[in-house]
Amino acid sequence: MRYERIIICDKIIYWHNIFKLGLIKLNQKETPLISALLNYVKKGHVGLHVPGHRQGVAIPEEMANLKNEIFQYDLTELPGLDDLHHPEEAIAKAQTLAAQLYGCRNSYFMVNGTSGGLAALVLACCGPNDEIIIPRNVHRSILTGLILSGAKPVYIYPPALTGFGFTTVPSGQQLNHCICQHPGARAVLMVHPTYYGVTGNLSEIADITHRAGLPLLVDEAHGAHLRFFDQLPADALQCGADAVVQSTHKVGGALTQASMLHLNSDRVDQTRLEACLKMMQTTSPSYLLMASLDAARRQLAESGQRLIKQSYETARYLRAKLKALPGIEVLEKHHLNDTLAMDETRLVINTSKIGLTGYQVFDLLSAAGVQVEMADYHNIVAVLGLNADKGAGQSLYNGLLKIVKKYSGQKLLDATLNPPEAVVMVTPREAWLAKTLRIPLEQAVGKVCGDSISVYPPGIPAVCPGELITQELLEYLLAVRTHKLHIQCSGDATLKTITVVDCGV
After folding, report:
1. Which residue blocks in 126-171 are alpha helix, DSSP H?
2. pLDDT tens digits, 185-219
3. What is the pLDDT of residues 395-404, one digit of tens each?
4. What is the spatial distance between Cα 197 and Cα 193, in angstroms, rounded to a whole number?
């Protein structure tokens, strides 16, 4: 069964709302999520997306061997299995092996994903009204740390990449200026690489941050593999980061939701960080997720270079073929300035000259059995993961070739769906705890937002709690609504209404 909208009494009501209202009696014999998974797998999509093990193609051998007894290994804290919240035995050794592999002091297994690790880092470094410097294109999970800590974000706005439209990473000059303007800041947080695979001069960023006496925290969700192939940008720890969180599941081969946090200096208090991790992680951690981290670590140590090299060579082969297609432009090093680099195992493909948005191409490819990672107005992004062969790449090429032949010649409206700069009125925590009300979106100009609204993926907030809803922001949100982009928020995902702070209270 698809979750879709239906019309009742001339009003569009979504399935999930009807279920909540009890207007349809459901059959308790159904398992809709399991059915959805089975139906998806039966379609045999070519997967160019996370997780990096590519539906088992590059799963660590140890995890593949568990498949027939998987439920026997779904255990809890029993004698001999250690305790994630106080590791002394097997988990402690597994984490030490990870720390040695990544060249850091301590590594921590994360079963609540990188989101939980980033929130813990913000909470460990900041308190109420402390300033933390972050790029505006940071993932929305940082908001959790801001709300819990009461910290105040100070945003740096990275430049957009000409021709592709997405934002990149802040420069050292931008950071230095920001630190001078905010000498009381408590930490700097950067993204390395971005969702589009772009990195900056993180070594310079680390030097500037440390000269100011601040810790450099890094969201390296998409970079757990960088260390293991020398043709890729250096990873954040090699660049001097103090603490790093990686989504090992995205490109490292672990199961979805399994991440690692690496600590490598005294600029982040270890005792406080560990206390914050206890707050952010479940007290019933999945041993399957932790086992997948252990297995992924071993696979990266023993075979990471070979597995990544295979995807790297496939990406280069595919990049050469794709850029020969009329109307297709693929991100390459020559598009970047001297301070930027890119993860070449990730393909950013601009489709504007075909006359289609990235969203449209994403849907057309999916209908043809090729599933890429994400889309924005101008681009699609394909993630090759580990050990991707030319067969998977050929499917993407064939799909795009058909699209080019059918649709070339159309004209795409000149639009850049990037939100305007934020105007912070109060901290995210203050807005989150305030009394709120929901009003029509068109009436929201001049109000303070009480919610976080993100187009997902990539999950970068368009507006956060505590920010002013300007005319420019309204126009952006109306464009998002018109294009029917997938929204994550706490309120109305259709964007007919928006949650604002009730200033009358």
Report:
1. 142-149
2. 999 999 999 999 999 999 999 999 999 999 999 99
3. 999 999 999 9
4. 5
| Contact present, 505 and 430 (Cβ < 8 Å) | no
Label residue 48 by pLDDT band (50, 70, 90): confident
Q: What are phi and psi of 259, to 5 degrees?
A: -135, 175
Rounded to whole angstroms, the Cα distance separating 148 from 121 reads: 11
pLDDT at res. 414:
61
Q: Is the pLDDT of residue 430 over 60?
A: yes
> Tokens for 397?
């090429």
Give 18-21's long-range contacts (Cβ < 8 A, gap of 24+).
Answer: none
Confidence of residue 21 (pLDDT cuts 50, 70, 90): low
- Using an 8 Å Cβ cutoff, are 345 and 315 in contact? yes
Tokens of 378: 């101008």
* Three-class HEC string of 12-72: EEEHHHHHHHCCCCCCCCCCHHHHHHHHHHHCCCEEECCCCCCCCCCCCHHHHCCHHHHHH
CA distances from 404 to 324, 364, 365, 368, 397 (A): 11, 11, 12, 14, 10
Pure H helices in 261-389: 270-280, 287-322, 358-367
CA–CA dist 11, 14 (Å, integer): 10
* Nearest of 106, 128, 131, 103 to residue 117 by alpha carbon: 106
Nearest in space to 307 (alpha carbons), one of 16, 34, 10, 61 = 61
pTM more than 0.85: yes
Q: Which two tokens stand for residue 37?
A: 């998974």
Asked if residue 318 lies in contact with residue 397, where contact means CB atoms within 8 angstroms, the answer is yes
Alpha carbon distances (Å) from 154 to 118, 169, 220, 243, 469: 16, 15, 20, 19, 18
Q: Residue 325 in contact with residue 401, Cβ under 8 Å?
A: yes
CA gap 50, 382 in Å, rounded:
9
Amino acid at 71: F
